[in-house]
């Protein structure tokens, strides 16, 4: 092995695609199973391919797009090698599988994933299906007579699984943002001027996108949800305190008493005073 820090028990594999594969399919020109010591380092300005590294033991340090990060055992590293990049052993005993991939939509997929996820997929986020794809890819690379169509299928499946993983994470992050705005509503429902723009800003989303995603998640608009929160709080005050209708309306964020009575009747089909009488 010519690479610095690569030990003798390491393996490297090469593949020369036929014209059809080179033009139409995603394929792996070279790959490897490496055992490295602390001297292992790769630093490049440019290489016309994308790169996947699976860290099996030890850790790998990655410098990419102005950041330096640690990829622990069990993680997957994804790089577009057309940008400057560097990675090196973070421990003395590093074991990893790697492959370059090119062709078809590999570059577009890679850069989409880099944009939304970053260059490291950590172990807690990876699925058994992703690990299975990686195993099959390395196994097929070692077999000289592997069908290029089978290899392309596994590569496409791996990229798809990573993209779906990213979608699930985005969904989870969005749910947390929406939940944060609901908590904000609960804490500020007494503010009569609490607006949709404020809630969208709280979530760091555009007003239109926030409105659409909130409605998809809760089947009502943010305005309706806030109104329901206010009426629910008003019902609690009506049944447990002797506060006046005017005071309760103000406490719950209604701009005036008539506005409070109108909305209470709209949701409950009775007035606040009638509701209170039910609890006497």
TrEMBL record:
Q: Which domain of life is it from?
A: Bacteria
Keywords associated with the record:
DNA-binding, Transcription, Transcription regulation
A matching Pfam family: HTH_18
> Has keyword Transcription regulation?
yes
User: Record keywords: Secreted included?
Assistant: no
SUPFAM superfamilies attached to this UniProt entry: Homeodomain-like (SSF46689), Regulatory protein AraC (SSF51215)
Q: Which PROSITE patterns match?
A: HTH_ARAC_FAMILY_1 (PS00041), HTH_ARAC_FAMILY_2 (PS01124)
Q: Which GO terms describe its molecular function?
A: DNA-binding transcription factor activity; sequence-specific DNA binding
What InterPro entries would the database entry show? AraC-bd, Homeodomain-like_sf, HTH-like, HTH_AraC, HTH_AraC-typ_CS
Gene3D superfamilies attached here?
Answer: Homeodomain-like
Q: Which residues form the HTH araC/xylS-type domain?
A: 179-278
In terms of PANTHER family, this protein maps to: ARAC-FAMILY TRANSCRIPTIONAL REGULATOR, HTH-TYPE TRANSCRIPTIONAL ACTIVATOR RHAS
**Name of the protein in its database record:** AraC-like ligand binding domain-containing protein
From which organism does this entry originate?
Faecalicatena contorta
Lineage of source species: Bacteria, Bacillati, Bacillota, Clostridia, Lachnospirales
